[in-house]
Every structure is written in structure tokens, then in C-alpha cells.
Batch of 2 targets.
Target 1
Amino acid sequence: MDIEAVRTFVAVAAAGQFQQAAAELRVTQQAVSKRIATLERSLGVTLFLRTARGARLTLDGRSFLPHARLVLTAVDRAAASVRPGERALRVDVLNRRIAPAQAVREFYRVHPGVDLELVPLPEANVHDAIAALLSGEIDATFRAVPMPATELPEQIVAHWVLDDPLQLLAGPAHPLAGRATIAPAELSGHRIWIPGIRPGTEWAAYYAELTAAFGLHIDRIGPNFGTEALMDAMADSGELTTLVGSRDRYVWPAGHDLRRIPLTGPTPVYPHALLSRAGNPHPGLAALREHLITAAPPAPADVWTPPWTR
């Protein structure tokens, strides 16, 4: 069924005249007549009685009218659900527990009128996320970018908005548990377990640079049963540790007594960039970008990042 013909039918029913409906739809009266005739043929009924005063709905026309209105409402809602500026701003935060999700949550607290949808893409690497941007599936994504900005597709814009300092997470029996801070080089020889690292991802590239720079060994063996299982294992171990961002939000049972220990001298930070498609007209995107830039916490004085950052 031709949606424009249905829209024309509803317009004629409301106006009571083909000529007035044509003016409202900004088409010719002949075009209106053709659309109505086509719709009547497809339905096999007469929808209007043409009179000297205009057009009057037949019994079939009156029966069809409420359903036609529902069809148009559904079509308009469907279009608005994907049209920038009318649908929600779609932001990939990778994981709802890490720093980007917390930053977007703070943005929404300051801008509660922005229609916002979090779309985590935890299995996607930066190239997959860029493809989602270019296709319009998402409006923005938080990613480390393991390449010079000049190598990004020309349609992609990158703003480095969030450097999240790393912390060591250890159980109470670990020999480093009582430390207030730790230098990255001091972790050499200690077991750091991050089972979520997947080859080909930007976080794999980041941790490869980190281990090379400070002589560390990061163990990624074994299945990734999730954050809770990792924390359970550390609580019961005097050997296991992992690395988390300072703004990541994790909750564990009080009995675990896990310790978050900042890394300093230097301070490794995970560099989150906000990527978006150039020319994206969604009004919420500009507001999000401005908020992230202005609200970014000051970077530590002794920052370490991989050489490909920025």
C-alpha cells in the first residue's frame, strides 16, 4: 500500500475537498485524484463520493479512516526513531561500568532534557565501532585509537576527552595490598590477570604497549566469566591482581576487602577519545562533546600513554 496515497486520503477526509488537500500537501489536484484512485483500486472500494461541494466519505471510507490514521502515526514514529534530532542520541560506551559510561551519566545529570540511549558494543573493536558510526547505527563512541588521527577515515572526527588513570586491584592477602601507591615498574614479576583482552582490539594494543614499557606480564588465559568471577578469584588469592580505571565503578561483597591502589611515577592512563561522524546533525552530540571537554578532570603531571596516542 502506498503510504503517500494513505496520507493523501487522510488529508482529503480532513479537508473535505481535493483542491484544499492538494494545497496542504503541496501537490497538484490531479496528483491527489490519481493517488486516491490508485488507493481505491488497491482496496477494491470507493472511499469518497464526489459532490459539487467537495468529497464526502463513503461508509467504507469512514471505516478505513481510523486505521489509516494509525498507519500514518506508526510510519511517522518509525521515521522519527532513526532521524537525527528526533530520535535518541545513541552513544557506545563499550561497557556500562567503565569511565565513559560514568561520564555520560554525569552529562545526562547536567542535561536531563537530552534524549539519550546507551548502546554498548563490548565485542566491537575500534574499526567495528567506526563502521557503526559511518552506517548511522550509533552517533558517538568512546575508544582508544591505536593509530595516528590522520589515519582515521576522513568522515570520522576524534576528540580526546577522557584520560582515565589506571589502578591496581588486589585482594587483602596480596603483598602489595597495603601500599598507598605503586610505580608501574614495581608490578614486574606480579601476576596481572585480565581475561577480557582479545587480540585485534584497541585495549589489547594498549596493554601490549604498557607491558613493553614497564616490563610487565599480563595474563589473559582462561575464559572470561565476568567481573564478579574475577573479583571472587582475587579475594581468595595472594597472587592475582588486575588493572582497572580510576573512574570505573565496580561493586564487590564487603568481605572481599579488595584494594584499589593508584599507579604513579609515571601514571598510566587509558586514553578515551570520543569518535563521531563529521556532519552528524544530532543536537545532542554537540552538547555531549562540549560537556566532556569542559568537564574533563585535570590530567596527572606524570602521565604515561602509548606513543600512538593523539
Target 2
Amino acid sequence: MIAFLTKRLMHAILVMLVISVIAFAIQDNLGDPIQQMVGQSVPESEREALRERLGLNDPFHVQYLRFAGNAIQGDFGYSYFYREPALDVIARHLPATLELVFGATLIIVLLSVPIGVYSAIKPRSPISRFFMGASIVGISVPVFLTAIVLIQIFSIGMKVTLFPEGTAWGGWLNATLSTQGGMPSFGRGQDLVHVFGYWDSNLFSAGGLRHLVLPSIALASIMLPLFIRLIRAEMLEVLQSEYVKFARAKGISPWRIYFVHALKNTMLPVITVGGVQIGTMVAYTILTETVFQWPGMGLMFLDAINRADIPLIVAYLMIVGVIFVITNTIVDLIYGLVNPTVKLTGKPA
């Protein structure tokens, strides 16, 4: 275990090193941070003095080595726009993103497992065919379009007039399909509960949860169809295995076979893919947070690019890289618990 964690720590350091080099290499293409920091009336001499004071005129290797030396001490630089440490800015926005990812993950787990298992147990039923067709549509629709549709239906409201109003059935269908809206679709609201430090949570109040619903559904729409199809495919394969046939021959309850014996082995590849995808969702929050103006790391990163806030961009990319490493480490630990024949050192059990 110690050797495994040490190896992953080295991976995290390597990831941060590579990301920081790449981020510094492209900084000249992101714009001029001085232009974003000062007004148009500031003379060129003062701009040049500020550039010199910030070290922006130094060669690439000098800037990078200075940053790396400070980063080893936990200093990732000061944000040009916020005029405070970049890590403090990220720490202030990180809880919003993590809560959004948590809400989306919860939706994915609660829906994908029962739908995927049912679709494998009864692959030819109309309900299973509907879910498979809907999953294809879900994979094809981009997250920003899903978010806009959710805002139109559940926040703004939608009046349906497709069916003839003069008939009882037409009026009933129009009324049933119409929505009144009213769901929050902008920001985190005012009903936040302070937990500790920079963490103000939406999870502990009814108003906060209402603000979290639509962004979480939009973010979950990216991965939900993938997991439904993955669980269905793995479950179909497991149900054809010899031990499942033997369990049926012994007269074990079908539901025990499905949800105890088969589902456990079905989840092994799902856990592997899920760890990568959960980390990916942190990056996907950029579009979701932009549409809903959710004040998380994704929206912060997009604003940092527009402002050419180099220290904040580099710090964000490095933190996301570390999140990927931590997520995959946790997944490997869970995988070892679910499947004891797998050793974390990579040697066969």
C-alpha cells in the first residue's frame, strides 16, 4: 500500500510538472495580462514598468524556474485580476464545482444502475428499447444545449399548443405537457450554509438544493447515457457466464442472482471507467457553469482565459491534474476491495 501511494504521489508530481510546462509554453498566445490590469489611459512607460516588476519580460526558463521554486513552497503566484494568491481564488470556487459534480454523480448512480440492469434482464421489452434509444440521443446532444432546454422548460416555462384546444383530449394533453417554470437557473442563490473555510454549501438548505437541481441534471446528461449502455453491455455478458447458469440451476432467486452475484462483477469495469469520467466531469463543468452562471472553477477558468490571468490558469490546470490523479487512486483502491484478486502493486494475487 505504501509503495502504491508513493508511486501515485510521484505520478501527481509528474502530472503537475508537465501541465505547468505546457501552460507556461502557451501563455504568450493567451493575450496581454497588462492590458487587462490597467486602463486605456495608462501610458506605455507605466505599462512597461509594471511588466518589468511582474517579471513578464524575463525569458521563458527564468519565469518557469521562478514559478517552480515558489510552487514547491506552496506559492502558485498571485492572480492578476483578483490581486490575491491563485490558490485562495481556486479554494473559493472549488466547493461549488465539487458540489455540482457530486450532484451529477448521484444522479448518474441512482439512474444508470437500475436502468442498465433492467435493460440487460429484459433487453427486448419496450421500456428497454426506449431507454437505449434515449441514451443514443443523450450521447449526441451537447451539454450546453441540454442546459438551455432545461432552463426553457423548468425555469422560464413552456406553453404547449400542439393539440386542438376545442377537444377534451387536446386540452388535457396541452395542459399536461405545458410547464410553469420557476426553477432557479442562475448562480447558487442566497440560501448557502457556511460549513468551514471557503465552503459555503448548497446541500444543507431547500433553496440551495433547488439551485443545484438543473445544473446537476445538465452535467449528468453527459455521462448518464454512457453508463447505462456500459452497465447493460457488461450485465448481458455476465448473465451468460457459467456461474450465473449454475446459480439458476441451484434455484437461487433471480433478483439475488441479478443484484448480488451478477451486478458485483458487472461493476468492475464500470468502476474503472467511472473514475476517469468523474475526473473528466470536473473539466466538463466549464460549459455547464457558463450557461447557469454557476460560480465554480469552470467559470473562473473561462474568465481567467479572457483576462489572460496566467497564474490563475496555471494553478487551475495543475489542481485539475491532481484531482485526476486522486480520483484514479481512489478508484484503484475501491477496485482492489471489490476484486481481491487484483493487487495494487500490479502483481498477480
